[in-house]
Write a structure and sequence with these properties.
By secondary structure, the chain is of the alpha+beta class. It is built from eight helices and 20 strands. The chain folds into four domains: 104 residues, no CATH class; 142 residues, Copper type II, ascorbate-dependent monooxygenase, N-terminal domain (Jelly Rolls); 138 residues, Jelly Rolls (Sandwich); 42 residues, no CATH class.
Length: 482
């Protein structure tokens, strides 16, 4: 019996999970991007074994969910409020069930480090632009002082463009000047002078703003930022426009800090070099007249009727602190099936994103887009700004509420359903797209050269910007050399 017990203990030690081999890949690929020095999660760094070990119980709580109906989600981290079982969206941030179970099991087994030499390499986290070299950079005119008072700070800044004519843009990219302080940002354009009075009334640089920009005289949303979400250029042929004689308004949410800090953020502008085929349009589904009685849950339901064929590409549900949940779906006249767009079971004002489906969604004429928001104006809502709860109406203040959903779309063209909205990743030489390099790719490449057809960057194996027999030779050599 003693031999069996000793053998059991020995085997459990040998096969126990360890940080270096089992846990570091989970942390470094999903957590450390934000939880490291100088980033938004610097208050809780997770960049090595010791830091993860010291915070292992907090991490366990955050990734496994607390089951108490917390408004910060279930689980809390990674921050992705949308229900992944409802629809599939780009840039989803989550841990798989296996990853969660592995971490929890590692903690239960004693959180051993293992061999440091076997630790997963720290990823090469991006710095600066994720797109490339911008055509123009607009920076805040002066550093903004952020008081270390553990309070949220919402601030709007006006950046002069100097554009005397309309400018077609491929992307606007917000670059945080202080990654630890900047939580998220939104960018619009407005005619010159629109916000002069707002700026004049505020003694500090910029002007105070919470749920909006302080004015309705603004363009469509042109850009934004949130931790972990990257900016992208619009697909080929699509663009947005910065109107002539306009200035950019940048709304920045500064997270609560314990120390005084400063920020000098900037905006990268990428102009559209190729001819514009379609402009990205915006339709805002809005309700100004809702009333939220105290001590009640209230559902507000709005419908967008589609009067021409469109291709939907993005959406941004927005409410304030009384928001409890969102659901947005589409109904088409040609199918009895509902198209699920997004469901947010536990709305969190601190985490708001532009959400994109993986592919454009065709909504034919006669379709309806339904948006439903439930508001919790009771004392059970820990974020309720009023105690006791009060009647609440539309407004841009902290104690007000909003029902506001901008949708981005383009006029439909056949084939839009096949346009991928994310970053196309490919394996060089994987001509048939099966993620393997073998003789089947050689056959596919030869057929493309002889018979024509749609090519991908994976086909240009030798990188000379043309597809020919030299690519076949290179591909064969790649396969033979392993």
């Amino acid at each position: 019996m003693m031999n069996i017990l000793c053998m059991t203990l020995l085997m459990s030690t040998v096969f126990a999970l360890n940080y270096s081999e089992d846990i570091s890949p989970i942390i470094y690929d999903n957590c450390t991007l934000c939880h490291r020095e100088g980033e938004i999660g610097a208050f809780l760094p997770l960049a090595n074994y010791q830091e993860v070990f010291e915070n292992r119980y907090w991490i366990s709580y955050a990734i496994s969910g607390n089951g108490d109906g917390s408004r910060h989600g279930n689980p809390i981290m990674p921050p992705w409020p949308a229900d992944r079982s409802y629809s599939t969206l780009l840039d989803e941030m989550y841990l798989s069930e296996d990853e969660i179970h592995s971490f929890l099991e590692w903690v239960d087994e004693g959180a051993m480090q293992g061999d440091p030499a076997l630790e997963y390499p720290m990823p090469d986290y991006p710095t600066g632009s994720a797109i490339g070299v911008p055509d123009m950079v607009l920076e805040l005119e002066e550093s903004y002082f952020i008081e270390g008072n553990f309070q949220d700070d919402y601030r709007c800044f006006v950046l002069e463009t100097g554009f005397t004519e309309d400018k077609d843009i491929a992307a606007l990219e917000f670059i945080p000047g202080n990654l630890e302080a900047v939580h998220h940002a939104l960018i619009v354009a407005a005619p010159q002078g629109t916000t002069d009075a707002l700026e004049a009334e505020d003694p500090e640089y910029g002007y105070d703003c919470f749920g909006g920009f302080g004015t309705f005289n603004i363009s469509d949303f042109l850009g934004g930022y949130a931790p972990g979400v990257r900016s992208r250029e619009w697909p080929a042929g699509l663009t947005q426009k910065i109107p002539a004689n306009s200035e950019l308004i940048v709304q920045i949410h500064y997270a609560p800090l314990g120390t005084d800090q400063t920020d000098l953020s900037s905006v990268n502008i990428f102009f559209k070099e190729e001819p514009t085929q379609r402009y990205v349009q915006e339709r805002v589904l809005i309700n100004f007249t809702f009333q939220l009685p105290p001590n009640q849950l209230t559902e507000v339901h709005e419908v967008w009727n589609i009067y021409q064929d469109i291709s939907l590409i993005q959406f941004l549900p927005h409410s304030h602190l009384l928001g409890k949940s969102w659901e947005i779906f589409a109904l088409t006249p040609t199918s009895p099936d509902t198209i699920p767009l997004i469901k947010i079971p536990q709305w969190d004002f601190d985490w708001q994103f532009w959400y994109s489906p993986e592919y454009m969604i065709h909504l034919p004429q006669g379709s309806e887009v339904h948006a439903i928001c439930t508001y919790d104006n009771t004392s059970n809502n820990p974020d309720n700004p009023n105690n006791p709860p009060q009647w609440t109406f539309w407004g841009e203040g902290t104690e007000d509420e909003m029902f506001f959903v901008p949708f981005r779309y383009v006029d439909y063209e056949p084939g839009d359903e096949n346009i991928y909205l994310g970053d196309l990743e490919y394996i060089l030489g994987d001509v048939n797209g099966d993620t393997l390099l073998n003789i089947l790719d050689v056959v596919s490449l030869v057929n493309l050269i002889l018979n024509g057809g749609e090519t991908t960057p994976a086909c240009d194996v030798n990188g000379d910007d043309s597809i020919n027999v030299l690519d076949v030779v290179t591909l064969v050599n790649m396969i033979l050399s392993g």
